[in-house]
């Protein structure tokens, strides 16, 4: 992948762009094997890859510059702005969207936030595109509500220019820190769910719910998890840290008793919508802390699927899983280091199979799916 910004040194977010892609993949696989070197692995599967460019369905743009000439991209540590509208990780049609948004910022008088001076209103633009129908969710991250009326007034022009905008909202983030968004979300369109679809499974994305940034590889991750679970012939499972329900909804069959747990009420609303669309009768999604739910729940499912944040599931949940002793644990991880640490605490389980998913080409990051079977 050629990137002009990388070539001139303006952006080095893709730290590994100078390495041939086969070498990137080999180094990631070697890193994973080193992390699990003390654990016997019955089966290593080939890494799953996707496109090396134009694969992102999301853009998180820092807004800088002036209201007349805004820049969308990022800030270096010294405060120097870099416009990333030409980043080759985005699909080519994103450039049209970015161009219209720059015009809209000027038209609506949304002054970009200046970090050094602590002045201005518009901090970020957050975009998510559905690969299912091409619809876009757009979120304006503002310092306060002072420009909200101007934003609403100018919005019809933006919707006319970009009819693919299906979900629009404003997030209020008043804190002068590197925090992407605040707690308060103000809807600016009646529709507040963006529909996506992976492997014929309907999924919904709300403004404050997490969703993968590489839909091509993510859909294969869900499909492979489904195949592994179906091969086990289980009838009950938990999906902890379930997000919008992608794993559980793929793995559940009509007779499966599925409980999905996620701290985000926004994500749980999406998961319930999907389950209703699929007509699943034995599914229960709840907005709770996953570790607290597991320790309080009396019934033991046949399989527990965990998809935790980068910190992993931790000592307490590992101890409880060890105590409750489900037959299988399916661990999906975005941080193999914390996963390896967690697995070392699950002494009664052996690793049946492991597969790497290269969700983030040109970086050291990757995701991994691991099936653990109780001895």
TrEMBL record:
Q: Which reaction does it catalyse?
A: uridine(747) in 23S rRNA + S-adenosyl-L-methionine = 5-methyluridine(747) in 23S rRNA + S-adenosyl-L-homocysteine + H(+)
Q: State the Gene3D superfamilies in the record.
A: 2.40.50.1070, Vaccinia Virus protein VP39 (3.40.50.150)
Q: What class of enzyme is it?
A: transferase
Q: Does the keyword Aminoacyl-tRNA synthetase apply?
A: no
Q: Which keywords are on file for this protein?
A: 4Fe-4S, Iron, Iron-sulfur, Metal-binding, Methyltransferase, rRNA processing, S-adenosyl-L-methionine, Transferase
Give binding positions for [4Fe-4S] cluster.
3, 11, 14, 87
Extract the InterPro entries matched here. Answer: 23SrRNA_MeTrfase_RlmC (IPR011825), MeTrfase_TrmA_AS (IPR030390), MeTrfase_TrmA_CS (IPR030391), SAM-dependent_MTases_sf (IPR029063), U5_MeTrfase_fam (IPR010280)
User: Can the keyword Cell cycle be found in this entry's annotation?
Assistant: no
Q: Where does S-adenosyl-L-methionine bind?
A: 212, 241, 262, 307
GO molecular function terms listed in the Swiss-Prot or TrEMBL record: 4 iron, 4 sulfur cluster binding; iron ion binding; rRNA (uridine-C5-)-methyltransferase activity
- A GO biological-process term: rRNA base methylation
Question: Any idea which residues are catalytic in this one?
Answer: 334
Q: Name one Pfam family in it.
A: tRNA_U5-meth_tr
Q: What are its E.C. numbers?
A: 2.1.1.189
**Record-linked HAMAP family:** 23SrRNA_methyltr_RlmC (MF_01012)
Cited function: Catalyzes the formation of 5-methyl-uridine at position 747 (m5U747) in 23S rRNA.
Per the record, the similarity remark reads: Belongs to the class I-like SAM-binding methyltransferase superfamily. RNA M5U methyltransferase family. RlmC subfamily.
* NCBIfam families from the UniProt entry: meth_trns_rumB
Would you tell me the protein name for this molecule?
23S rRNA (uracil(747)-C(5))-methyltransferase RlmC
Recall the taxonomic lineage recorded for the source organism: Bacteria, Pseudomonadati, Pseudomonadota, Gammaproteobacteria, Enterobacterales
